[in-house]
Amino acid sequence: MLYEILAAVAALLLAAALAALLRVPARRLGVIDRRRQRAVPLCGGVAVVLTTCLVVAAWEWTGAPPLGDGIRELLVAGSAVAALGLVADVRRVKARFLVCGTAVAAACVVPYGELGLGGGVLAVGWIVFVALGFRALDHADALAGTVGVVTAFGVGVVAAAEVMDGPAVLLSVLAAALTGFLMHNWPPARVGLGSCGSLFAGFLLASVAALARTGYALASSAEVLFALTAVAAADVLLVLLSRRLAGRPLLRGGPDHLAHRLRRLGLTPSGATVLVAAAAFSAVVVGVLVHIGWGTRTATLWVAGVTLAVVLGLLRVPVYGLRRPTGVHRVGRQAVVRGTGAPGTGVRTGVHDIRRTAAGLATRPAGESYGSARPPRQSAPGWVPGGTATRSSAGSARPGDGGQ
């Protein structure tokens, strides 16, 4: 137990330090998240991957109890997926390459001898689904990291119940590394996880969960695995259904994920993250209890039903074609202000006002359209030859003031 505690503390501190140190290099290299309103460097994933690999390597070097042969293969495959995600962070990578690369890595860690060919193929597909689901969760600050920590603890308990000490230690290190990263990722985030870290975390979590459920019936395994990753599955299902119903391309990004819709309902960024994390915790607890025999399969069916109800409810939240609640828009280099709703006002009036102002002409007051009747212009008082000087409204003397 002492080794596990020391490894977790070391992972937490090292991940927090690396995430802070890598911010400047990530900015200089242009590894930033351009989907956000703020430029957020995507160095958190590299920090999590390096921390997990270094702490596990130090575990074996210090002479602690061995973690097992499968841990090295898991880390190598997970690092390959993380490298693919890092490439996706630096430059645009098509989704099919991410799917194929993750599938190849998953095929290297699935135990075909115990699952058989059909079960192995299903396990590979599920690992790819969860890995990409965690990548999709990285659409809001701290969301993927928080859900990853909760899921890592749950899957770690499942692995420990199967006397798989090596995978359990690996996930405890991963959870600690994600916690250290969250010190810089809590809203407003200073560091992003990126595809590198989200694919790595999702791949390890799904792989260990699949290994822990090896030897169980297919139906019960599917129920437990779904409960352990219900939030990631709900986000993917929500996005696919939403884009399908709206007639949008399935791979086209948009503000249609879980946190986006919760923000539309009025939640703050932190509130949305806490709510999603609480939902993930509830589902993970159900999955763990059913796995160890303290719960019935009916509980997992409840998780599936609630997940479906939440997805159908959030589908009613409008997210497409909405403009920001502001009255200012950009037209070229000029700002156009919307009208107040009076007759003759609006965007077109604002455009004409800008053009007339640039030409030195007077503009119409709000509520008066161009071409409508207008009272005659009165001549302004000014200096008259042989007369006295008058002052402007600002109080400054016009030419000829007192002959001085």
Q: How many angstroms separate the termini? A: 95 Å
Rg, Cα atoms, Å: 30 Å
Number of strands: 4
How many distinct folded domains?
Answer: 2
The assigned structural class equals: mainly alpha
> Taking strands numbered 1, 2, ... along the chain, how are they ordered across the largest sheet?
1-2
Proportion in helices:
55-70%
Beta-sheet strand percentage? under 5%
Shape: globular
Low-confidence segments, given as residue ranges, are: 325-404
SSE string, helix = H, strand = E? HHEEHHHHHHHHHHHHEEH
Relevant terms:
404 residues, mainly alpha, two-stranded antiparallel sheet, 4 strands, globular, transmembrane helix, cell membrane, UDP-GlcNAc:undecaprenyl-phosphate GlcNAc-1-phosphate transferase, transmembrane
Summarize the structure in words.
With 404 residues, the protein is an all-alpha fold. It has helices spanning 2-21, 23-29, 44-61, 69-90, 95-107, 112-137, 143-161, 165-185, 194-212, 218-228, 230-246, 258-264, 269-291, 297-314, 347-358, and strands at 32-33, 40-41, 328-331, 334-337. It has two domains: 2-314, no CATH class; 328-355, no CATH class. The strands form two sheets. It has a two-stranded antiparallel ribbon with strand order 1-2. The chain has a two-stranded antiparallel sheet with strand order 3-4. Helix 3 (44-61) packs across helix 9 and helix 5 (95-107) packs antiparallel against helix 6 (112-137). The N and C termini lie far apart (95 Å).
